[in-house]
TrEMBL record:
Pfam families: SRR1
Residue stretches making up the SRR1-like domain: 42-275
Highest classification ranks of the organism: Eukaryota, Fungi, Dikarya, Ascomycota, Saccharomycotina
Protein name: SRR1-like domain-containing protein
Natural source organism: Hanseniaspora valbyensis NRRL Y-1626
InterPro entries: SRR1-like
Length: 281
């Protein structure tokens, strides 16, 4: 056990509000604010003059049960505290995750809100989270930072066309897109995102080939024996249809994802990057 009380990915003590508060406000925060990932994020927010009035967080995980989500919450809170120094209006941070326990929800709605009157932390149900999506109003979304520290491909396939983020803090998206198969009918939106990134040069042709996906409409040749004669027959694979995207390019503003920063947070910040989706005019 180290001086932060960590033995493995589980919290080493039966967590209570006081234990979580102590780690969040007096221990883990000191470690995170000295990290490269935190300083990289705030420097790029400042350098790029990024203005946002709310943060919507998804897929954080239970910070009462696991170390990584607690560190991810610490990072989120420190970004917000840094940002709150330059804002005068009310700032809303909403969080949803089906993994949240009643203890997580109580802590979000009560303990976090006691620390800064300008900041409103709130847990949202799935229905509330979806009801508050403003994807039809892209100008409203430009004022929201979406924080999804560990969204898998299926979650991004669902979320990107729904929320249409401009600012997205999550896993380095180009690495994730390399795992998307060009012919996957269940990943229609991400397939089109990958095609767009190929056109803009964000994913190279060599990377596509290494991923067994060369962005050509594929025709699979199979051999069948018919009437005791070997014939070649083309089995046509249905191509994924073209979908109009809401953005023209993706810029990655931070570079801390390129190296693995060692720390007590384990894999909490692996490949985390700040993205900007450049909208179509």
């Amino acid at each position: 056990m180290n001086d932060l009380g960590i033995t493995d990915t589980k919290l080493s003590l039966v967590p209570t509000n006081s234990i979580i508060s102590e780690k969040l406000f007096n221990k883990y925060n000191e470690v995170v604010t000295k990290s490269k990932i935190f300083n990289d994020i705030i420097e790029q927010i400042e350098f790029n003059k990024i203005e946002f009035e709310s943060i919507r967080c998804l897929a954080l995980g239970s910070f009462f049960e696991e170390i990584q989500p607690l560190y991810q919450l610490v990072l989120l809170r420190e970004i917000i505290l840094w940002k709150s120094k330059t804002i005068d209006s009310q700032f809303v941070i909403s969080l949803y995750d089906p993994a949240f326990t009643s203890s997580d929800i109580d802590f979000i709605n009560n303990e976090l809100n006691d620390k800064n009157q300008k900041l409103t932390w709130k847990y949202e149900t799935e229905q509330e989270w979806e009801a508050n999506i403003t994807s039809d109003d892209l100008s409203a979304n430009e004022k929201t930072l979406y924080y999804i520290p560990h969204g898998d491909l299926h979650l991004l396939e669902y979320l990107f066309p729904l929320i249409k983020p401009k600012y997205y803090l999550g896993n380095y998206v180009f690495d994730q897109l390399l795992r998307v198969n060009e012919n996957d009918q269940n990943m229609k939106y991400l397939v089109n995102v990958k095609r767009q990134c190929y056109k803009t040069g964000k994913i190279s042709k060599n990377e596509l080939n290494n991923d067994s996906d060369d962005f050509q409409q594929s025709v699979k040749k199979t051999k069948k024996r018919i009437n005791n004669k070997l014939e070649k027959e083309k089995e046509i694979i249905e191509p994924v249809p073209l979908i109009k995207l809401y953005f023209k390019d993706i810029q990655v503003l931070t570079n801390s994802h390129t190296t693995i920063e060692q720390g007590p947070w384990l894999s909490a910040f692996s490949s985390l990057a700040l993205h900007e989706f450049e909208k179509e005019e």
